[in-house]
Amino acid sequence: MKVAIYSNNGESSLEVASSLKKGIDQSDKLSIDGLNPEIVISVGGDGTLLSAFHHYQDISDKIRMVGIHTGHLGFYTDWRDYEVKQLVDSLEHDNGQSVTYPLLDIKVNYSGSSPSDYGLALNESTIKQISGSMVADVYIKNQFFESFRGDGLCVSTPSGSTAYNKSVGGAIINPSLSAIQIAEISSINNRVFRTLGSPLIIAPDEWVKIAPKTTHKTILTCDQQDLSTRVVESVEYRISKRKLAFAQYRHTQFWQRVANSFINEVD
Ligand code: NAP
Ligand code: MN
């Protein structure tokens, strides 16, 4: 089985990556292949796993991810840095077991004849304006829904619901559901401006269109990156037909993972 190691540059991550590489080199069932891997192991934090996903985005339907965390407990990273041996052993006994997480399709339309941009997010996409308030019309399934005024909007996947979405008061969604959530980032609500004011979750056959009404530049993010800083005409979001697979060598129940990340004291 072909394995790629994607590490951040932290000292402890590089150490883990090097002992992992050693373990893989010593195994006759495993080999390192950074170009066409079947398994991608990220070594670092959730941010590292997001970078690894985007690095292998074009072949993301052919890979399964594994996350080793070298810092604090991560959400996508459930192997500890001292478990390299167990992980190599699990890789050697792999029988294709996996769990898949929904992804978010992003289509960015510009005015005139500029071609659209496309993005794929594992966590979320946000559309926001740094200075002044962002005014944007929100459509659900081509029906006008509301006119938003505030800092911005956060559109997240279920597995991204524990990230930015959580900070802005969104709900946590089990990734076994295909759904996307739209959460407001500091909306202005008074007698003049009115939005729903609560996060909303749409179904897989629905889509959302956000059309900024300002001539100011909006910032459009896709996970940890900027997708566009140009003047955007509209952004369309829907649940992708693609999903991201994680090799599931052991099972941690989703809500246990949530409790471990946010509530329980861990060593
Ligand atoms: P970062 O500033 O290190 O990320 C912020 C925190 O979010 C880190 O603790 C990160 O864990 C954690 N995180 C990432 N994905 C998560 C997930 N699905 N569930 C729970 N926690 C998660 O930047 P980054 O590492 O490049 O990550 C980018 C992400 O940061 C974005 O996708 C966005 O979700 C999040 N973010 C949050 C806010 C906010 O809450 N106000 C603002 C901007 C961005 P690690 O330390 O393990 O990386
Ligand atoms: Mn990070």
How would you describe this structure to a colleague?
It is elongated and about 65 Å long. It has a 16-stranded mixed beta sheet that branches. The protein has helices spanning 11-26, 46-55, 84-92, 164-167, 254-262; strands spanning 2-7, 31-32, 39-44, 64-69, 79-80, 98-109, 117-121, 124-128, 134-140, 143-156, 180-187, 200-202, 208-212, 219-222, 225-228, 234-247. The protein folds into two domains: 2-97 and 248-262, Probable inorganic polyphosphate/atp-NAD kinase, domain 1 (Rossmann fold), CATH 3.40.50.10330; 103-240, Tumour Suppressor Smad4 (Sandwich). The protein is built from five helices and 16 strands. The longest helix has 16 residues, at 11-26. Manganese (II) ion binds next to loops.
How is this fold's topology laid out?
Blueprint: E1 2-7, H1 11-26, E2 31-32, E3 39-44, H2 46-55, E4 64-69, E5 79-80, H3 84-92, E6 98-109, E7 117-121, E8 124-128, E9 134-140, E10 143-156, H4 164-167, E11 180-187, E12 200-202, E13 208-212, E14 219-222, E15 225-228, E16 234-247, H5 254-262
Parallel strand pairs: 1-2, 1-3, 3-4, 4-5, 4-16
Antiparallel strand pairs: 6-7, 6-16, 8-10, 8-14, 9-10, 9-13, 10-11, 11-12, 13-16, 14-15
Bound molecules: NADP nicotinamide-adenine-dinucleotide phosphate and manganese (II) ion.
NADP nicotinamide-adenine-dinucleotide phosphate binds at residues 45-47, 50, 71, 74-75, 123-124, 159-160, 162-164, 167, 223-224.
